[in-house]
Design brief:
The complex is a heterodimer of chains A (515) and B (520). Chain A is 50% helix and 7% strand. Chain A is mostly helical and 515 residues long. Chain A contains 23 helices and 8 strands. In chain A, the strands form 4 sheets. In chain A, strands 1-8 form a two-stranded antiparallel ribbon. Chain A has a two-stranded antiparallel ribbon with strand order 2-3. Chain B has 520 residues and is of the alpha/beta class. In chain B, 32% of the residues lie in helices and 11% in strands. Chain B is built from 15 helices and 14 strands. In chain B, strand 7 and strand 8 form a beta hairpin. Chain B is globular and about 60 Å long. Classes of the chains: A mainly alpha (515), B alpha/beta (520).
């Protein structure tokens, strides 16, 4: 929707229309765009926007509609003028030339006796177009059928342009792309590659690809920084900290993907960062933040940043939550939900007792102090906890702890702090199917960066982002094509994230509509 | 694999709730709302229109919409609570209003077993010129024309008829005990000039005061919500069109269904202010031409002519000039209602009937033809709404003096030449779907969509077409004796095909109206 409104606003009433955009409901599924459910609020607001835009154009800008040469300003526009209006405006909205039947249908709408004035007719046509299935949904069924495949259509060049544009830039084709569709230069692989590279240069390409990473990694869903106890924030200025944490990940991903043409492994191991606030800089132990910075080796990989580490607003870290994220989101392993009544807090320390968070977590989820296996939890936590333990090098807010956890206990009625050495190594078989020791989080990131399972997981998440649905058995060949690019080979190394996008577009499957 | 969240849709919810309703005691309050109007017939009037060839299956209600069993093999659905348009071409606000007020009746599954040709119903309803009437006589209009009940004395009451293949023109017959047929078509002259209009004007409306201005079209919607509602009707239509014609999966069709459901929800939230019916205005009997006359050769196009015809029909019905009018919407000759206009020059032999309906030049895909056909249908239904239904709906039947509008006291039937099919040009003579507006003072049990299970093999066993025609004749007050007598073809009305599957199923009803829509 945003992109359409940019089309009609033409810089004239952007800000007003933006108010309507803000009325559109938020995405519903864990921050993902959910295009599969049709909500009443969506429909209501689509109408409000379309009606508003139609009215504004009809009453204020009727002479400026592209393709009409101002003929709609005439008191009684002739048939040719109405046709030009419908073709001109419609091709923008539909992202392709309208078919004869479509033009005729809209002319019927224009001429219907339901609307008595020219302004009503123009409003009605525009508002109907802006709510039409061809605008609100992306239907690519105008091409020729492929006789060897049932229910399959090859995309027309216009459809290919539209699909490509939405995939990379999240908006409708620009004039260059539209012209290339018109003159047929998109049909060749070279022509297509040229356009992909050109679109990658647009700022909107960064926005779109960041949207993928945001939906996948949910790096804006850390715990509320204002809810952390004072013992953790320790006087830190929390103002704008959330924004800085999110911006850091967003800009770092953009930098690695677009500036460095980086790979998945690069993302997992990069030390590049963008730190804008002194509070975030303080968490990282650096001063004078000014945007881009190269962090020390303890921060290698985007997963070692505050946005990923601040999983729970508590005075203790949550190895389970940190580990769960790696297992489910980075490795795409299914993890069950906790049984009813499962405890969410570790047991309090008894007087005189000093235990690391790791040990307390182990007693809660794996094996009790008396050696009893926690049967209701162990099967899942034994898979996720080891990953979380490697991040114990960081406090709940993401500060590096230099190998020491300060544990507060009570001795003889008096509160006492004790420094306990951290154990950040762990053993897991989740990466390769056999037990291996991960010595710390940097080691984990290196392993993840080279893990076929992790690469496959990213590919699957990418597929979901592109298709807006989970893959089915029919889709695995397509996914494997993309995965092969991401794997790369021994000579060239991994394919870059941009290569992944390119391969998606160049795959024959991208150019077909199956229904 | 991650676990996906899936919200139960409203549709799923309703389906689930429906499961519970099945075990709830059946309460009258759960019954659908129907318009069971008290029968208060006044002067009876009938307008029959026929459309060119078929109705296209994917543009009209599916029989499955009628989901309430009525009797064995027959089900129905009330229309005023149906959240969808009744057909792709029935979207005019007047029609929506009539639907909501329970003044529409539709029947799906009527078989023409009367004539061996699919064109039969056109002839049976008298929508041809007089020469063709006789082929499969008796036609309904022949009985109406000669009815002593309807026309007891020689009067000046006329009989308006726009016939097929009369140069796209119209005829006006003076009838009564001394029937005077005007065989002349009021059409184009030898030079293709439409001087017939002036002649028709003199015959028909010359008695009325001139210069009174045309019958005003319904006022433009001034209410913002009404305007919005009209836009949403178009949006809905575009989704219906996409759902039916685009190459999308069944899942996506369900998604569009949901989308359409939401559009209706939005429409229902708009408060439409209807004019209060406290004082229904009386119909204008002034002549329909703004200057009181028609200039020679002033009108040529089909659209211009048809709009004039419709104005004349309205005047004839409301100003004591006729009790029966028959108006054929035809596709022969110049086709200039918009869609594909440039493809049909008047001199090349291309026209809507040949080029679209029968695809004689092979220029269109089925889908394109369906689309054009829908355009054609919608144009006529919109104009019918504007020039006939709306004025009849909103003007008081002063002759009846029963406080009802003309439309409530009469019947306007939209019939098709052939039956329902995917191809608008097929000559199928099965599965007709008449659309009736008004309810003849309550004689017609309106607000219903009735579907007859026609079976799946062979010709099926839909209700014989003559039951529909008998319904009209009885609604017009004709006694059985006036239409069951043998005619010059040797068959009395209702005596067709007294053997075969249809007869076995429906023989007991052969002289009866369609009882599912009959309230007499």
């Amino acid at each position: 929707m945003k992109d359409l409104l940019a089309l009609v606003s033409s810089g004239v009433y952007d800000s007003t229309v933006q108010n309507y955009i803000n009325n559109l409901p938020n995405d519903e599924i864990s921050g993902k765009e959910n295009t599969n459910l049709v909500y009443q609020t969506h429909i209501d607001n689509y109408f409000d926007i379309a009606y508003y835009v139609g009215n504004r154009i009809a009453n204020n800008y009727i002479g400026n509609i592209p393709g009409t040469n101002g003929c709609l300003s005439n008191s009684n526009p002739n048939d040719s003028c109405v046709t030009n209006f419908i073709n001109g405006f419609g091709s923008k909205v539909y992202r392709r030339p309208l078919t004869t039947a479509e033009v005729n249908r809209y002319k019927g709408y224009y001429n219907t006796s339901s609307f008595s004035t020219k302004q009503q007719k123009v409003t009605a046509v525009i508002a109907t177009m802006l709510q039409s299935p061809d605008f609100l949904y992306r239907i690519y069924d105008q091409g020729q059928s492929e006789s060897q495949f049932s229910n399959t259509r090859k995309l027309t060049d216009y459809e290919l342009a539209s699909k490509l544009s939405y995939l990379i830039t999240g908006t409708m084709p620009d004039a260059t792309l539209f012209n290339k569709a018109q003159n047929g230069t998109l049909s060749t692989e070279e022509g297509l590659m040229e356009e992909i590279d050109r679109l990658f240069q647009k700022p909107s390409a960064k926005t779109t690809l960041n949207r993928f990473f945001l939906e996948w990694l949910r790096y804006n869903q850390f715990a509320d920084v204002n809810a952390f106890p004072n013992t953790v924030t320790n006087g830190l200025n929390l103002s704008n900290l959330s924004t800085y944490m999110t911006s850091e990940i967003q800009d770092t991903i953009s930098y690695v993907v677009f500036n460095q043409n980086g790979t998945y492994e690069d993302l997992m191991t990069t030390r590049e960062s963008f730190v804008y606030g002194s509070n975030l800089a303080s968490i990282y132990g650096i001063s004078n933040p000014n945007g881009r910075v190269t962090l020390d080796e303890t921060r290698s990989g985007i997963l070692s940043r505050a946005a990923f580490l601040a999983r729970k607003a508590s005075n203790l870290t949550s190895p389970s939550r940190r580990g769960h994220f790696i297992l489910s989101d980075i490795l795409c392993e299914a993890v069950g939900t906790p049984p009813p009544g499962a405890p969410t807090q570790v047991d309090p320390l008894v007087p005189g007792e000093f235990l690391t968070t790791r040990d307390r977590n182990h007693y809660l989820t794996i094996e009790t102090r008396s050696g009893q296996v926690v049967t209701s939890c162990v099967s899942c936590h034994s898979r996720m906890n080891p990953f979380g333990y490697t991040y114990e090098a960081f406090d709940p807010l993401g500060r590096y702890r230099n190998g020491i956890e300060v544990v507060t206990g009570v001795v003889n009625g008096t509160t006492v702090n004790q420094q306990l050495p951290l154990n950040v190594s762990a053993e897991t078989r989740e990466l390769n199917g056999y037990n291996e020791v991960i010595v710390n989080h940097q080691h984990l990131h290196t392993k993840l960066g080279q893990s076929g399972k992790a690469l496959s997981c990213m590919t699957e998440k990418w597929f979901e982002f592109v298709q807006k649905r989970a893959p089915s058995s029919d889709d695995y060949c397509y996914m494997n094509e993309v995965l092969a690019t991401v794997y790369g080979d021994e000579t060239t190394g991994q394919g870059s994230i941009k290569d992944m996008v390119k391969r998606t577009v160049l795959s024959p499957r991208f150019r077909y509509w199956k229904y | 694999m991650s676990v996906k969240y899936d919200r139960m849709t409203r549709r799923q919810f309703l389906i689930g709730v429906g499961g519970y309703f099945l075990v709830v005691p059946f309460l009258p309050s759960l019954l659908s709302r129907e318009a069971l109007a008290q029968v208060t017939t006044g002067p009876r009037r009938l307008l029959i229109t026929t459309v060119e060839h078929n109705m296209v299956a994917n543009q009209i209600l599916s029989p499955s919409v009628a989901n309430i069993p009525l009797s064995s093999g027959i089900s129905y659905r009330t229309l005023n609570d149906l959240n969808q348009n009744l057909a792709n071409f029935l979207t005019h606000p007047t029609i929506v209003s009539l639907k909501n007020s329970g003044l529409i009746t539709m029947v799906r599954g009527i078989d023409n077993i009367v004539t061996p040709d699919a064109h039969g119903p056109t002839w049976l309803t008298g929508s041809t010129n007089s020469d063709w009437d006789a082929i499969y006589s008796p036609s309904i209009d022949a009985y109406l024309e000669s009815s002593q009940t309807l026309y007891p004395t020689a009067t000046s009451t006329g009989y308006l008829k726009k016939v097929l293949r009369c140069n796209g023109s119209i005829s006006y017959r003076k009838v009564g005990n001394n029937v005077t047929r005007i065989t002349d078509c009021y059409g184009d002259d030898a030079n293709n000039n439409w001087n017939g209009a002036k002649k028709l004007y003199n015959d028909m409306v010359g008695r009325f005061s001139s210069g009174g201005g045309s019958t005003p079209p319904p006022p433009p919607p001034t209410n913002d919500n009404s305007f919005k509602n009209n836009i949403l009707n178009l949006v809905f239509e575009s989704y219906q069109n996409a759902r039916n014609s685009r190459r999308i999966s069944n899942d996506d069709k369900h998604k569009l269904d949901e989308h359409m459901e939401r559009i209706h929800e939005l429409q229902s939230s708009l408060v439409i202010s209807e004019p209060p019916p406290t004082q229904i205005p009386q119909a204008s009997c002034q002549n329909p031409f703004s200057n009181g006359n028609l200039a020679n050769n002033a009108i040529y196009s089909y659209t211009d002519k048809m709009e004039v015809y419709m104005k004349l029909v309205r005047i004839a019905l409301t100003c004591g000039m006729t009790k029966v009018a028959i108006l054929n919407f035809e596709g022969h000759g110049v086709y200039d209602i918009g869609a594909g206009k440039s493809r049909f020059p008047s001199t090349s032999g291309h026209d809507f009937h040949g080029s679209i309906i029968h695809n004689e030049q092979g220029a269109y895909t089925l889908s394109e033809r369906q689309s054009q056909y829908n355009y054609w249908m919608k144009w006529h239904m919109d104009k019918l709404s504007e020039y006939i239904l709306e004025p009849l709906r909103t003007t008081e039947d002063v002759e009846a003096n029963n406080g009802k509008s003309y439309l409530e006291n009469m019947l306007v039937a939209v019939l098709s030449e052939a039956g329902v099919d995917n191809d608008g040009g097929s000559h199928v003579n099965l599965d007709y779907m008449p659309i009736l507006f008004g309810n003849m003072g309550g004689l017609i049990r309106s607000n219903r969509f009735v579907a007859i299970d026609r079976g799946t093999s062979g010709r099926g066993t839909g209700i014989p077409y003559n039951q529909l025609l008998i319904t009209f004749l009885k609604a017009m007050g004709l006694p059985e004796s006036e239409y069951s007598a043998s005619s010059n073809t040797g068959q009395g009305f209702g005596q067709y095909r007294t053997s075969g599957n249809h007869f076995q199923r429906w023989g007991h009803r052969y002289y009866q109206p369609i009882e599912e829509i009959w309230n007499g």
